[in-house]
Amino acid sequence: MATRTAIVVGGGIGGLTSAVALMDKGWEVTLVERAPSLDPVGAGMALGPNALRALDTLGLGDPVRELAAFQGDAGIRRAGGAWLSRTSAEAAAARYGDPTVLLMRSALVDLLAARLDRAETLLGTSVTGVDPEVGIVRTGDGRERRADLVVAADGIHSATRATAFPDHPGPRYAGLTAWRFVVDADEPPTPSETWGRGLVFGVMPLAGNRVYCYMTAVAPAGASAPDGEKAELTRLFGTWHAPIPELVGRAGPILRNDVFHLTRPLPAMHRGRVALLGDAAHPMTPNLGQGACQAVEDAIVLAHEMTGGGGLPAYTRARLTRTSAIVKRSAGIARLTRMSGPLVVAARDAAIRAMGLLGPTALLRQGDSVFDWTPPGDTVTRSSATR
């Protein structure tokens, strides 16, 4: 039987995971990435139990756990510091088999990239066109490459998605700008999200006394701070509870990007020989921390369905409904964070506090549809603690 071939367009987490998963199933893979290296654009990231379960199928779950910080008890706070709700990491681990873990995005990229030894990796190579029906990828060097499968992992503003579904409106601006940075800390702060009037500040401790901070604010698309992003963050969050002002004061490089998401699901996650994956298929707001997690799930399911499964139609059936629901749910939380009127914010905070008073089990149940996911075939290779 001839070796099946795949071209993966995009070297982010979704593209790398799909390349590794397909190679593990005997595919010959070419990875095309327009950047000159696989150094990721990003800072820290969270991986939920569902993503760890997916990575277990590649034997990468435990290496991630070893590098990551386990999210402790966390919750949502007001700008003055009062807690609106708390969650229990111990209860989450008992319910889902793992807690959420926190690590640098680059750490996961490095683990995945180390598994690309058998792949042809074309860095600094742009894709100028894709023919979905015959699986042809055209690159900036004037070459055409043909494959049995083309994996479109080319991000939020995917050109491949636009080619495959030219009548779809694509992602829309969610009304929010996001910032991210990582700083050193003498003592790790308590994991939390603090919600204000149209503002959010997230604090997530990483391994090695580092802290990943992320923020969102209501802002027009394309805006920027005339005197720098640090000055802007100081204006927005400088009077909030400790340690937020100190963390902003320590910030070095700060990433800023507008938040886009899909307000209407794609009709399918494939067309012809092309499979859409991750942000190319279902860009979402960051409020559930599931962007990368769903890309990892996509990659595992795609490799399964394309190797002895039901092919691309089965991939769409397995992924479209689930990812569309998560996109919608994340957008709903984003709408809550955009609230700025004092009365509606007070009502929102009261509702969050009332849910918190029901106890950690009630809060955890809200995550069941996201975290309680099992990879197809359940071929987990994790060698340590069982769930």
Describe the protein:
This protein is α/β, with parallel strands linked by helices and 387 residues long. The protein has 2 domains: 5-71 and 90-171 and 262-378, FAD/NAD(P)-binding domain (3-Layer(bba) Sandwich), CATH 3.50.50; 173-261, D-Amino Acid Oxidase, Chain A, domain 2 (2-Layer Sandwich). It is built from 13 helices and 19 strands. The chain has helices at residues 13-24, 49-56, 61-67, 89-96, 105-113, 159-164, 229-237, 244-250, 291-305, 311-338, 342-357, 360-365, 368-371; strands at 5-9, 28-33, 44-47, 69-70, 74-78, 83-87, 101-104, 120-123, 127-131, 136-139, 144-146, 149-152, 172-184, 192-195, 199-206, 210-218, 255-261, 270-271, 274-276. A 7-stranded mixed β-sheet has the order 6-5-14-15-16-13-17. α1 runs parallel beside α5 and α2 (49-56) packs across α3 (61-67). The two termini are 37 Å apart.
